[in-house]
Specification:
By secondary structure, this protein is of the alpha/beta class. Helix content is 31%, strand content 29%. The chain has one domain (11-102). A six-stranded mixed beta sheet has the order 1-2-3-4-5-6. Helix 1 (26-41) packs antiparallel against helix 2 (73-85).
């Protein structure tokens, strides 16, 4: 289904986090909203600036507010939310395979 969006609009704001699937893929939008929801439940959504899925690379780039250092406790909470809801993601420049990705062929 290359070149055609499954979902439009391809970007939205959920729980104060900018979310985007560059190619409007349904699975990516679902993962992004689940990630934002989990961050909100864990009281760290305000620390996440945006999460953008590069559909061609099937990799989500998570960008935190500039005040967040990856060594902080809150960063660990965000990282765990990403691991639980995103298949593949980039965290402080390093690629990670989330729990969803471990179940994919």
């Amino acid at each position: 289904m290359r070149g055609e969006n499954q979902i439009e609009p391809t970007s939205l704001n959920a729980f104060g986090i900018e979310l985007e699937s560059r190619d409007g893929r349904a699975r990516e939008i679902v993962e992004l909203v689940e990630f934002a929801s989990m961050c909100a439940e864990r009281k760290v959504a305000h620390l996440v600036k945006r999460a953008t899925y590069d559909s061609d690379e099937t990799l989500c780039f998570v960008e935190c507010q500039s005040s967040i250092d990856e060594q902080q406790f809150a960063a660990g909470v965000i990282l765990n939310a990403a691991k639980e809801t995103l298949a593949r993601f980039s965290w402080f420049g390093e690629s990670h395979l989330g729990n969803l990705g471990r179940h994919c062929g």
